[in-house]
Amino acid sequence: MTxxxxxxxxxxxxxxxxxxxxxxxxEALAEHLGRYEVPAGTGVLDLAALFGDANPVVxxxxxxxxxxxLAMARDAPDVNVLAAEVHTPxxxxxxxxxxxxxxxxVRLLEGDGRTLLTExxxxxxLAGVRVYFPxxxxxxxxxxxxxxxxxxxxxxxxxxxxxxxxHCATDWEPYAEQMVEVIGxxxxxxxxxxxxxxxxxxxxRFERRGLALGHVVNDVLATVRxxxxx
Length: 230
Ligand SMILES: C[S@@+](CC[C@H](N)C(=O)[O-])C[C@H]1O[C@@H](n2cnc3c(N)ncnc32)[C@H](O)[C@@H]1O
Description:
Blueprint: H1 23-36, H2 47-51, E1 57-61, H3 67-75, E2 80-85, H4 88-101, E3 106-110, H5 113-120, E4 126-132, H6 150-159, E5 160-170, H7 173-186, E6 189-191, H8 205-212, E7 218-224
Helix pairs in contact: 1-4, 3-4
Bound molecules: S-adenosylmethionine.
């Protein structure tokens, strides 16, 4: 689900990679995706209808190969997870895991999670937004591609329900500083001073690579402040 480019559209936060999928994953996609995918369309999603219950919903943008997404969904079956990933093999891998383990509290979007949040999520409707190890875009000329910026943070604040959380993690320290800066500057969140990984967030696949390189991981957790809604 991508919108036509407009002059105000944020710069794409990802670079589409080619990736191969094994036969098992291709078959999982063909056979089971219909049961798990976010239906195409343009309107705001009815989250209770999508999941078949009224449990709280968290959106994860950039679920990668989905290992951590699957583990967290299995650990918390009373929390619904909307996982958005642009990389098709990642969607295939997560779907395969969901089917193998009989996990039913995850729905998948193969597409841009920021567009989903902008166009299809009602204000005040999410319990959380998770962004684990977003592409760090380390070169200065690419910083504009970083997902976590002022516009994104405002969007998240608007879509979160009262008490909802934005949870980002990164192994790129300058990006962690940027996250803290923009979230703090928005004035709409209370930042958790503790930057260590909460026990309930598994180490992700991408994080393992960073740790092997000696990178320091920061978890940036922020709770939206109540605002008067018209
Ligand atoms: C560095 S990887 C991290 C993946 C996973 N969270 C992990 O920690 O292993 C970042 C992922 O975010 C995805 N991504 C980036 N921007 C996205 C967007 N706007 N919507 C959906 N996926 C996105 C990329 O395709 C990539 O798979």
